[in-house]
Design a protein that fits this description.
Chain lengths: 243, 243
DNA sequence: CGTAGTCTTGATGTGGGTCAAGTTGCGTGG
DNA sequence: CCACGCAACTTGACCCACATCAAGACTACG
């Protein structure tokens, strides 16, 4: 990891100007001139589903954006217990600490689907950050959004029933994934498998499976296979999701 | 709330220069000249233990610091279930959203102990924030710290046993409260009652009580009354706290 | 069309919730 | 200073939602 041969520089065809997440990521804070500074630093990295980008305890420390795919932030115990403490989607930001050397990572980052990252080496990115307060402003907004979401998830993990957890999870997936592609369809693919869902919402995979079956039998969700959701009854899901 | 008679301006004897949290709060980012801008805005507010500063759903929207005491961020369901999603200690920052009007609060803020706040009206503070990037930088560092902590707590809520939760909670209290006063003593007062601890770590008050009793009987914690901790066996607590 | 990974379903177990008394500690008033 | 009353805490008995253990059933890919 992060050793040996350098990552490829961004090719002309993959410049920031034409980037899929040019405006939705933190880069949206930057004007044409400013983005040039980042463009010069950017390196692309691809990971296959299941591969690990960073391990808990590492101090790798680059910054970057997710340009395609879904990643999970995972904390694990030696005895096999896992908790997914966050999901990263297209245009989400990656990186720990702000100043100085990178701190030890509190969680691993693993590719859930095939993944594409746009990475900036630590020190040069810190310099860019110091030059452009609008970039830091954008990072702060993102951090506050993630904090609000983490607290929402604390409510789920601390107080919700299995039924409420799965309903809340489905609403969350629908909100994040329906809008990524086309706005009108209500269908989407759940990128996580049953075990990952369980580790995200603090249950076992068996309980997740049973609750999914219940949603199907109650006509609230129409599945096509275990991962593709044809349609959801949003109102009834909200009822089931609890507070 | 936030109606009628204005809060008192900061008196000369309570200026920022002599403030207990002048350097530990976000204000630590500001030079003498810069702090003057904030000093002109500051209003003090006191709450007795148990009083509510903000209700879930409010859009009050001032910013501020906790100058003394402990507050809890609480989310509640109609059926009585509660989850404390964060504790605020001396020098912690309060306020939602950055730009424009205040968003609806996701959680209530309630005084756990007698509480003293140093508040800045929303709009003027936003102006100060726009003028001094170092203040925003400090806010970002704080937000990232809180995010890291929230994710740590997600692990507790999602995967830890009752025994591990109470041990982790005690370590957290020791860390936050021992250093506030004198460094050498290992004793401290738990500001939360059993029900609040339960709502913080996702258990019932009975289970919390039983686990506290177990810590006492196993000689890991010496209590004097239900709230005062005389000493803790740090190493054995860490063992019990799990991952 | 075989086989390995993933998902579903069923049977059983248990950690922590719920319900119900006690007990302790503390402020208040006599 | 003591008696009372109330809230907070502890402890015990019982229960249930979800975990665990154990087969099967899909499905995808060679």
């Amino acid at each position: 990891m992060h050793s040996g041969n350098p990552l490829p520089r961004l090719s002309a065809s993959a410049r920031c100007e034409g980037c899929a997440i040019r405006h939705s990521s933190v880069c949206g804070a930057l004007s044409g001139d400013e983005i040039a500074a980042l463009n010069a630093l950017a390196r692309r990295k691809r990971l296959a589903a299941g591969e690990t980008y960073l391990m808990e305890g590492d101090t790798a420390g680059d910054f970057g954006n997710i340009t395609r795919g879904v990643a999970k932030l995972v904390r694990g115990a030696e005895d096999g217990r896992l908790q997914i403490v966050g999901l990263l989607f297209q245009s989400d930001f990656v990186g720990s600490g702000l100043e100085g050397d990178a701190p030890e990572e509190a969680s691993s980052i693993e590719a859930v689907t095939d993944l594409e990252l746009c990475l900036f080496p630590r020190k040069p990115f810190q310099d860019v950050l110091a030059r452009f307060p609008s970039l830091e402003h954008r990072l702060l907004k993102r951090a506050l959004d993630e904090l609000r979401f983490a607290r929402e998830w604390m409510v789920l993990l601390g107080r919700k029933t299995a039924e409420e957890r799965v309903a809340t999870f489905m609403l969350h997936m629908a909100r994040r994934l329906q809008t990524e592609g086309c706005h009108h369809r209500e269908s989407f693919d759940i990128p996580l498998n049953r075990a990952e869902i369980a580790d995200y919402i603090g249950l076992t995979l068996e309980t997740v499976s049973r609750q999914m079956t219940k949603l199907r039998k109650d006509g609230i969700v129409v599945f096509e296979g275990a991962h593709h959701v044809q349609s959801i009854d949003h109102a009834r899901l909200v009822e089931r999701a609890g507070f």
